[in-house]
Amino acid sequence: MPLGTTIHNIEITLGNGGQLARAAGAVAKLIAKEGKSTTLKLPSREVRLISKNCSATVGQVGNVGVNQKNLGRTGSKRWLGKRPVVGGVVMNHVDHPHGGGEGRAPIGRKKTHNPLGLSYTWKKK
């Protein structure tokens, strides 16, 4: 294959079947060839050496827009195995540091805490 070719479903070791770049829309790029090995740039931006004899499929995996699909309602998400997200404020005090109290009580601590009781704050990226 020429350098710069996009490939997917790549074997790591000969005869084990494709194991790399198999997710929807995934693609790896052939960077270099040296002796019996080939250098690939994987979707995770990792650069990896693989034997030239390992098989791969040319092109990109289909179903690229799977993450942009709007599921529309809760039932559709549940069919995919996604559980509902419950805030700590609505839990009991034994389940979360923000839980307990009468009615809609405030957190009651200076900073927000995770279920383990460790303090955390949101940071802008």
Descriptive key words:
five-stranded antiparallel β-sheet; 5% helix; 125 residues; mainly beta; 22% strand; two-stranded antiparallel sheet; elongated
Q: What spatial order of strands do you see in the largest sheet?
A: 6-5-4-1-7
Distance between the terminal alpha carbons, to the nearest Å? Answer: 39 Å
Write down how many β-strands occur, each being a DSSP E stretch of 2 or more residues. Answer: 7
Helix content bin = under 10%
Per DSSP, the total helix count is 1
Strand content: 15-25%
Brief account:
By secondary structure, the protein is mainly β.
Summarize the SSE layout with pairings.
Layout: E1 6-8, E2 10-11, E3 18-20, E4 28-34, E5 37-41, E6 47-51, E7 57-58, H1 74-79
Antiparallel strand pairs: 1-4, 1-7, 2-3, 4-5, 5-6
Folded structure, characterized:
There is one protein chain. This protein is mainly beta. It is 5% helix and 22% strand. The protein contains one helix and seven strands; from the N terminus they run βββββββα. Strands 6-5-4-1-7 form a five-stranded antiparallel sheet, with no helix packed on it. A two-stranded antiparallel ribbon has the order 2-3. The radius of gyration is 23 Å and the shape is elongated.
